């Protein structure tokens, strides 16, 4: 029996796997296993006889020829020679040897497909017609399977829970490396197959498309003689016959992965709502309860803020509220990671400003609303929105106040001011009051409140626990900013240009990695500058972008250097300590600033060391490196059984990669994760205006609507967080069918006909 061989070759230096993320992957990242023993023949040198179907492959954004070819050895196993207009004459390809190398490093053999039969001439003739839609689709199908065969050794390392998903990810990447725009148009023109929507089930969709085209073709070849038979022994097709690679099976796998990580959804909802909380959740007896009632199903804690005692109290309240309301709620804890931040500025005075609303003429149009309650009573009820909150050391006397009482005091400037009691509310630790103030006042800790009666004044109590005023530097374009390594060095105040603003950053990574001319951003890109000079202990920055009236830069604000090659450690010493807490208290751990495969390896080692096989892992994609290596990092993470997810951290991602690319980046991340059946968390500045001011922008509403494609949408904390959660829940779970039902049908009058 004569042996026939079909091969797929890509004349390119790298295996390009997608427009963005995979362009930068090194060929060595994707394994080319030894093919010897996989087929019924030994690898041989093959001379291209004729092109079969030609596509374009992507190479660093450019398109290079990719040709699917056939070669028929003669009786003595010597290849027949021939010419090809698509390739240079007598191009010679070598199969990879035992060492995985090719004699010609500029050409890579994508895969070999063994095929035996009585006559291949008919198949070759059909495939030789580049305009044939069926044959083009078959060629893509072969290429997808070849990519899987390439990476068979990589797939074998994946945990059985992720084997199908990892294979589908490989199929998706294989499809992305081809320029199939014309094929997309051809398939769409006959309403057969949309290649844009097959990410979760690539192979099954291609197979279904081929089958439908075969059925439509009146003079089709016998299915036993087509190219599909030559690859029937491959793993994917074997699993497809067993029902493992069907569209329904792939959908179930994606749904299963989503529920394993994020938990079950209630009331036929399709998208989870995650809310970030901090210490404020421990100061309110109702906040967590109200969040869950409004629609939140996941609570997020950022380990960059707070401490284990605060985290424990938050988690205790989450679990208690979840049980009481019978609403499942999981906890995600984000490790701080090696993020660069400004240091803590020196604390300001413990003072609060109370300001009534005034018109353009300076007349008071609405008095300031001030909440008064005993010390330790927690924040005011959720439905109230006071302008200021004062805690009073004097609970017994506060309980005797009545509506209409006037509380008098002298503010920090010695000005006499008055608070008029307008409403009374029961609170956890007694009673609280809403008071009105018609004149501006500066109140500090220790301020005495009193009531003036017929027999003179008598004390009510003293104001306590007024928070320190947040310190900041207001930066304008042209200002100089000095970043110091260590705030404990008092001498740094006298060095540097006169009048320059100063902040600190304790991370040595910053000072070791930057150079003059590098751009630098602060506070998620609100402030930009250019580095003018560096030393071992200081960096001088010239501000190039800020608000018209300047932009505040305070403590614990992010620092980004997009063009530098900072080599962070994957998990910091603080992360490792926090991971021990997360392991015993949370359902998921968020890993910040993941950049490369090595970070995943370290994470897996730490999880295995602690025997954490059920802890969910959320990879936060917030850097250029993390985005470019995402497919490879997913495949590495799939070696563990832990539930897996991805968070699109759009704040740092936009700063690191450029604002204008953000939309494309998040689309690509969604596509990659869809192919890998990995749930995605849509994060950063979701409904931010609504959370902070109570009124959303139109762009925020449409952003949330786009977020429906993700498995979870995350909100950050703010004054109007409960209203934001309720609004988000309504938007995410309102169906298009309901909207259509609300539209009145168009009724045409008979005289129009």
From TrEMBL:
Keywords noted in UniProt: ATP-binding, Glycolysis, Kinase, Magnesium, Metal-binding, Nucleotide-binding, Pyruvate, Transferase
GO molecular function: ATP binding; kinase activity; magnesium ion binding; potassium ion binding; pyruvate kinase activity
EC numbers: 2.7.1.40
Keyword Nucleotide-binding recorded: yes
Gene3D superfamilies in UniProt: Phosphoenolpyruvate-binding domains, PK beta-barrel domain-like
Residue ranges of every copy of the Pyruvate kinase barrel domain listed in the record: 269-356, 475-716
Domain of life of the source: Eukaryota
Cofactor(s) the protein requires to work: K(+)
InterPro entries: Pyr_Knase, Pyrv/PenolPyrv_kinase-like_dom, Pyrv_kinase-like_dom_sf, Pyrv_Knase-like_insert_dom_sf, Pyrv_Knase_brl, Pyrv_Knase_insert_dom_sf
Pathway where this protein functions: Carbohydrate degradation; glycolysis; pyruvate from D-glyceraldehyde 3-phosphate: step 5/5
UniProt KW Kinase keyword: yes
PANTHER family (UniProt xref): PYRUVATE KINASE
Family membership: Belongs to the pyruvate kinase family.
Protein name, per record: pyruvate kinase
Species of provenance: Davidia involucrata (Dove tree)
């Amino acid at each position: 029996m004569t042996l026939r061989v079909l091969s797929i070759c890509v004349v390119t230096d790298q295996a390009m796997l997608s427009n963005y993320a995979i362009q930068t992957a090194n060929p060595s990242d994707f394994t080319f296993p030894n093919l010897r023993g996989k087929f019924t023949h030994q690898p041989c040198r093959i001379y291209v006889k004729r092109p079969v179907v030609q596509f374009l492959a992507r190479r660093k954004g450019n398109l290079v020829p990719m040709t699917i070819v056939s070669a028929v050895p003669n009786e003595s196993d010597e290849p027949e020679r021939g010419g090809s207009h698509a390739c240079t004459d007598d191009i010679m390809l070598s199969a990879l040897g035992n060492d995985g190398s090719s004699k010609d490093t500029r050409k890579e053999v994508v895969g070999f497909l063994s095929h035996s039969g009585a006559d291949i001439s008919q198949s070759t003739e059909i495939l030789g017609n580049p305009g044939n839609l069926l044959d083009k689709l078959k060629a893509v199908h072969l290429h997808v399977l070849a990519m899987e065969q390439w990476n068979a050794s990589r797939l074998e390392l994946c945990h059985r829970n992720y084997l199908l998903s990892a294979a589908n990810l490989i199929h998706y990447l294989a499809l992305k490396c081809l320029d199939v725009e014309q094929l997309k148009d051809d398939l769409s023109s006959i309403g057969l197959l949309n290649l844009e929507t097959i990410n979760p089930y690539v192979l099954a969709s291609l197979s279904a498309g081929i089958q439908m085209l075969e059925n439509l073709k009146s003079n089709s070849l016998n299915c036993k003689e087509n190219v599909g038979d030559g690859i029937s022994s491959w793993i994917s097709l074997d699993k497809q016959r067993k029902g493992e690679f069907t569209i329904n099976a792939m959908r179930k796998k994606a749904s299963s992965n989503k529920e394993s990580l994020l938990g079950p959804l209630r009331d036929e909802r399709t998208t989870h709502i995650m809310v970030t909380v901090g210490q404020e959740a421990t100061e309110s007896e109702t906040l967590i309860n109200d969040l869950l009632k409004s629609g939140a199903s996941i609570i997020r804690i950022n380990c960059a803020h707070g401490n284990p005692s605060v985290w424990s109290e938050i988690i205790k309240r989450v679990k208690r509220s979840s049980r009481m309301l019978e609403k499942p709620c999981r906890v995600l804890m984000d490790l701080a990671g090696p993020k660069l931040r400004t240091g803590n500025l020196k604390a300001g005075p413990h003072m609060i400003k109370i300001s009534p609303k005034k018109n353009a003429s300076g007349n008071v149009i609405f008095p300031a609303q001030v909440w008064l309650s005993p010390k330790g009573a927690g924040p005011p009820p959720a439905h109230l929105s006071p302008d200021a909150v004062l805690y009073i050391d004097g609970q017994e006397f506060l309980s005797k106040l009545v509506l209409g009482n006037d509380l008098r005091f002298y503010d920090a400037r010695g000005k006499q001011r008055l608070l008029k009691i307008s409403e009374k509310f029961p609170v956890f630790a007694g009673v609280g009051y809403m008071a009105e103030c018609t004149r501006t006042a500066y109140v500090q800790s220790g301020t005495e409140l009193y009531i003036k009666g017929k027999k003179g004044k008598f004390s009510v109590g003293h104001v306590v626990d007024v928070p320190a005023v947040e310190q900041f530097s207001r930066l304008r374009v042209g200002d100089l900013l000095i970043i110091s390594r260590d705030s404990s060095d008092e001498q740094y105040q006298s060095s540097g240009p006169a009048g320059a603003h100063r902040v600190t950053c304790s991370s040595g990574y910053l000072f070791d990695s930057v150079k003059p001319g590098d751009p630098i951003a602060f506070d998620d890109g609100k402030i930009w500058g250019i580095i003018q000079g560096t030393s071992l202990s200081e960096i001088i920055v010239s501000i190039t972008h800020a608000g018209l009236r300047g932009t505040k830069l305070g403590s614990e604000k992010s620092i980004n250097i997009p063009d530098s090659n900072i080599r962070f450690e994957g998990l910091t010493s603080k992360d490792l300590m926090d991971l021990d807490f997360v392991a015993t208290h949370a359902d998921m751990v968020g890993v910040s600033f993941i950049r490369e495969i090595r970070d995943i390896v370290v994470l897996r080692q730490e999880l295995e060391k602690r025997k954490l096989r059920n802890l969910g892992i959320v990879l936060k994609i917030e850097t250029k490196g993390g985005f470019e290596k995402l497919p490879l990092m997913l495949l590495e993470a799939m070696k563990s059984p832990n539930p897996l997810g991805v968070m699109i951290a759009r704040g740092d991602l936009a700063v690191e990669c450029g604002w204008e690319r953000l939309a494309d980046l998040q689309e690509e991340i969604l596509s990659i994760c869809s192919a890998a059946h990995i749930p995605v968390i849509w994060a950063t500045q979701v409904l931010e205006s609504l959370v902070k001011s109570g009124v959303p922008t139109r762009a925020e509403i449409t952003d949330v609507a786009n977020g429906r494609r993700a498995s979870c949408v995350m909100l950050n904390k703010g004054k109007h967080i409960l209203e934001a959660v309720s609004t988000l829940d309504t938007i995410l779970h309102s169906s298009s069918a309901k909207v259509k039902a609300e539209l009145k049908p168009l009724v045409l009058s008979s005289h129009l006909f």
